[in-house]
């Protein structure tokens, strides 16, 4: 009788301890989908997903680590975040706690001019590894387009040729992410971001859209960002397409240091450490442009983005904001 009571007591404590432990673990999770007024949280402890209500404009994004206490969700500090500015000046957080930015492009529909350059600069300025995914390799326009992209960017960032339609190249991409990266697919609507994920994860079945015959554009099919784990390791976020990748919190000097194609000049150093590659004497970039080693069109794109960034830096409102954000 005595022994039995002790045993029962021990069992009761054990059960209580286990359930307390489960509760603590269950609280921590990551946002895997965002629906505006609710988010899906995947819990660390058991991998289960639960929908939790949040305030509209809560500022939470997919990839955010959170703690859930009943119906109350608290966001944990971010390791990284990537922002963009739209054409009207609105700032959007593209993703949080990422280490790779996958810029998805194709020959139809084409990305807007400067999209890839801005995305690479934004990624580098936020310590993310940019990659370019050239999709739709099954289309006749692919060969010429891919040649162009590889000539411009291959030396600067890893480039992948892919087809969501045929599955071409997807093993190489899966291998890249299996090293444990968390990446996000960004790009204009209709380039095949969701289709790529569907081919990589056949059970996924994300909605994909048609390309308009007349406008040769997509139709903003994806409206919600979602995070997916790859079976061989790594995670990928599908995001809604957009055309404006305006830079946020990137200074003129950061632009000068991170612009793709200038790496060889940065390695051989300009005379001044704060060179913005304009008319400064001893500028390695302008020298390589005059030697036709750096393409003049690329340099013109750089000057165009530099003018934008400098105009932004001159705004007192911007300086104040940047100071506050960097704190
Ligand atoms: N030929 C060909 N078509 C593709 C390929 N990948 C996607 N598509 C087509 O392109 C269209 C758009 O694909 P989506 O996957 O919806 O594009 P998305 O980038 O997710 O677009 P949003 O969600 O609107 O940003 C669909 O009709 C797809 O079938 C590909 O590799 N080859
Ligand atoms: Mg999509
Ligand atoms: Zn220079």
Main pleated sheet: 6 strands, mixed
Instruction: Return the CATH architecture of the largest domain.
Output: 3-Layer(aba) Sandwich
What is the CATH topology assignment of the largest domain? Rossmann fold
Q: Kindly state the mean pLDDT as a whole number?
A: 88
Shape: globular
CATH level 1 class label of the largest domain: Alpha Beta
SSE pattern, N- to C-terminal? HEEEEEEEEHEHEHEHEEHHHHH
* Ligands bound, unique: guanosine-5'-triphosphate, magnesium ion, zinc ion
User: Beta-sheet strand percentage?
Assistant: 15-25%
By secondary-structure content and strand pairing, the structural class works out as: alpha/beta
Number-wise, the strands total 13
End-to-end Cα distance: 65 Å
Provide the domain count. 3
Number of helices: 10
Please explain how this structure is put together.
- With 327 residues, the protein is α/β, with parallel strands linked by helices.
- The protein has 3 domains: 27-77, SH3 type barrels; 81-238, Rossmann fold, CATH 3.40.50.300; 252-326, Probable gtpase engc, domain 3 (Ribonucleotide Reductase Protein R1, domain 1, Orthogonal Bundle).
- 35% of the residues lie in helices and 20% in strands.
- The protein has helices at residues 2-27, 115-125, 142-153, 170-177, 193-200, 252-258, 263-268, 284-290, 296-314, 316-326; strands at residues 28-34, 38-43, 49-53, 65-69, 72-75, 81-85, 91-96, 100-105, 129-134, 159-161, 182-186, 226-229, 235-238.
- The strands form 3 sheets. Strands 10-9-8-11-13-12 form a 6-stranded mixed sheet, sandwiched between helices. Strands 3-2-1-4-5 form a 5-stranded antiparallel sheet. It has a two-stranded antiparallel sheet with strand order 6-7.
- The longest helix has 26 residues, at 2-27.
- It starts with a helix and ends with a helix.
- The model is unreliable at 1-10 and 15-25 (pLDDT under 50).
- Bound molecules: guanosine-5'-triphosphate (GTP), magnesium ion (MG) and zinc ion.
């Amino acid at each position: 009788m005595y022994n039995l009571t002790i045993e029962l007591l021990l069992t009761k404590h054990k059960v209580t301890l286990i359930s307390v432990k489960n509760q603590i673990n269950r609280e921590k999770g990551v946002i895997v989908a965002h629906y505006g007024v609710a988010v899906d949280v995947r819990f660390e402890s058991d991998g289960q997903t639960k929908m939790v209500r949040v305030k509209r404009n809560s500022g939470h994004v997919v990839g955010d680590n959170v703690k859930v206490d009943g119906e109350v969700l608290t966001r944990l500090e971010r390791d990284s975040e990537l922002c963009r500015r739209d054409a009207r000046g609105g700032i959007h957080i593209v993703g949080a706690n990422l280490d790779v930015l996958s810029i998805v492009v194709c020959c139809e529909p084409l990305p807007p001019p400067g999209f890839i350059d801005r995305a690479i600069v934004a990624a580098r300025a936020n310590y993310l590894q940019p990659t370019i995914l050239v999709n739709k390799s099954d289309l006749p326009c692919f060969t010429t387009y891919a040649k162009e992209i590889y000539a411009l960017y291959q030396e600067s960032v890893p480039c992948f040729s892919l087809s969501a339609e045929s599955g071409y190249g997807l093993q190489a991409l899966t291998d890249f992410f299996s090293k444990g990266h968390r990446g996000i697919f960004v790009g204009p609507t209709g380039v095949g971001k969701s289709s790529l994920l569907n081919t990589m994860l056949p059970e996924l079945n994300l909605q994909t859209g048609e390309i308009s015959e007349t406008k040769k554009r997509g139709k903003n099919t994806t409206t919600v960002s979602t995070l997916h784990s790859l079976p061989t390791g790594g995670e990928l976020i599908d995001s809604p397409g957009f055309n404006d990748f305006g830079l946020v919190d990137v200074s003129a000097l950061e632009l000068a240091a991170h612009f793709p194609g200038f790496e060889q000049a940065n390695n051989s150093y300009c005379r001044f450490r704060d060179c913005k590659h304009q008319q400064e004497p001893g500028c390695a970039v302008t020298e390589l442009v005059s030697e036709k080693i750096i393409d003049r069109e690329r340099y013109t794109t750089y000057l165009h983005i530099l003018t934008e960034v400098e105009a932004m830096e001159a705004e007192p409102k911007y300086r104040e904001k940047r100071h506050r954000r960097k704190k």
